[in-house]
Design brief:
6 helices; 5-stranded mixed sheet; 266 residues; Tab2-like_N; 27% helix; 2 domains; single chain; Tab2-like_C; Nucleotidyltransferase, domain 5; alpha/beta
Length: 266
Amino acid sequence: MRIWQADFYRSSQSDTSGQVLWELLICDANRSFEYIATCLQSEANSNWVTAQIQQAAGTELPDLIQVFRPQSLSLIETAGRNLGIVVEPTRRTFALKQWLEERQAGFSLEKPAPLPLPENLWGEQWRFATLAAGDLETEFSDRPIPILSMPEFLTPINLGLASTIPVPGVVIYGGRQSMRLARWLATAKPVALNYIAGAPDGLILEAGLVDRWVLATFEDAEVAAAAKVYAQRQQQSRGLHFLLIQPDDSGMTYSGFWLLQSELIE
């Protein structure tokens, strides 16, 4: 499958007459292919993007274009429809973000303040957990879990993790809300679950392209110490961690499981 990563944004540069320029960047996952095009703001539309994708592709269009910037998604989606190319919104455009970092010397994407989790989804309790990297797949891949997200590129073996590396996670006991919470998470598309120190401390769920949700807050010193260990283990596991939703602590029934990876590795 031929996969591209693309971004279309207002450039900090302008032309000789002072008019604002827009820039289109396209690359593949290892940046063996790179394409740059610029246009005036008055030309920045889906027709121009469509024409540029055709020009970049030549005789072989990509099967999939990945887009991480919400502001450019609709234009690239329209161009994709024009050409019969699937467009996937995802934060996992590591090669493209690295390229932007190099070009813009400190590229960053504005993110909104985290929102509280809707009250009707609150679980009964939660805890930190740890599993050896070698046990992650065997523990969950064969279980009858209604919502299971274990992307191939996030498996420990594909991240080059030793089987003994501890992979941190969070387990939520949802009680009667367990399946409702799991379905909501599936719609939200979890990316990472990070510990943020503050007053109070919290667990922030990064989801979708820029969405952020407060999954839990706490002031207890013992929980805060466990949270710091959780964050340290994320560093050791190349950002890999997991989120498990189950009705109770019996270990008999699971509602949802996600392998996640913090963007700290970018």
